[in-house]
Design a protein that fits this description.
Layout: H1 21-29, H2 32-37, H3 43-56, H4 61-85, H5 89-96, H6 99-132, H7 136-151, H8 158-182, H9 187-195, H10 202-213, H11 218-228, H12 237-273, H13 283-294, H14 296-329, H15 335-351, H16 356-370, H17 372-382, H18 385-388, H19 395-420
Length: about 425
Amino acid sequence: MSLSLDLQSTRFGTIPAGCSRAARTMARMAGPAVVASIAYMDPGNFATNIQAGAGYGYQLLWVVLAANLVAMLFQGLSARLGLVTGRNLAELCRDELPPALVYPMWVIGELAAMATDLAEFLGGALGLSLLLGLPLMAGMVATAALTAAALTLERRSFRRLELLIGGFVGVIALCYVVELFLAPVDWPAALRGATRPVLPDHEALVLAVGIIGATVMPHAIFLHSGLTQNRLPVAGPVQRRKLVGYVTREVVVALSVAGFVNLAMVAMAAASFHQTQPGIAEIDEAYRMLTPLLGGAAALLFLTSLIASGLSSSIVGTIAGQMIMQGFVGFRIPVWLRRTVTALPAFAVVALGIDITRALVLSQVVLSLALPVPMITLVLFSRRRDLMGEFALRRPTTALAVAATVAIVGLNVLLAFQAFN
């Protein structure tokens, strides 16, 4: 099983004996979508959602909703690919594609994992530094130490790490449930914003491109297929169909929670900043403005969710990087070494005094350039009947996936072009 950091362990813990067989199966299958959903609640989403809500109120909620539906599609495809084939996406690339393509794809996957980790690491460090009044470099060290400590949980059972990440997801969601009660949300306006597609001006278009373009994360697509491959032994086609149903439902539930968090971020920013501070674009600036506007509790909840997002995203990024390496080239490196290598760019940004926001933008450019690799290969493999059997994509779903791929890749190219300009 390719779930632990050494990608060999199958230790998921025990399920209470009193549970029915269906409940026990669901309990053992639960987890992959929750882990993958962290990619859609990472610190990069915080900045984008704050800008959307502060600048345009509730008008761009429909973009967030559409982006989440696309995420459900591709994470569902990735989960099904791993479950049906018993191989993750990186392994399928290595086995099915020419070596001349495999090694460049591996390098692109590694760069995507490092770019993702840059944003997540900086987000967690920023949250800790603001909460504890520490210099940003001290927040970086604390984030690295906490992430390393969390990764040790997988030595006994990957299930413990899954539960920890699930706890982080719960903390983030709970924080935003409370934030919605604290912020004076205009619910009718929010409903209109979520259901009426509108782009008021060119800047709104740019922001919409950023929201959609950063939705499907390369490392999350690679990771999800590895989290479902060989998770449970499959006795036959009937059981496989049931397991596919389980993972599909989990994707819908987990990504619905992630979608709620993103919608709540935009709504909170709209209610708090749109009328008074529409130009807010920085995470630390938003935090400082929340105290006089909504009180210290709202600001504390905001930081708590940011820290939970940064730490959990950094953990998941490390797991994804290890899976990408082993899948493409068949070897792994010690976790501490991978953690060190992926953290170095973030430390360099802080040590050299590089603008954090600019660094985050550039990391998204790298992700946008890496995104076509997992998206295109996922669609190609998912429609192959020799690999997927009865679970191969049918024409309507294939057309939808291809259209979404073309749209997302096109938007990411546009985002990269705009970032460079």
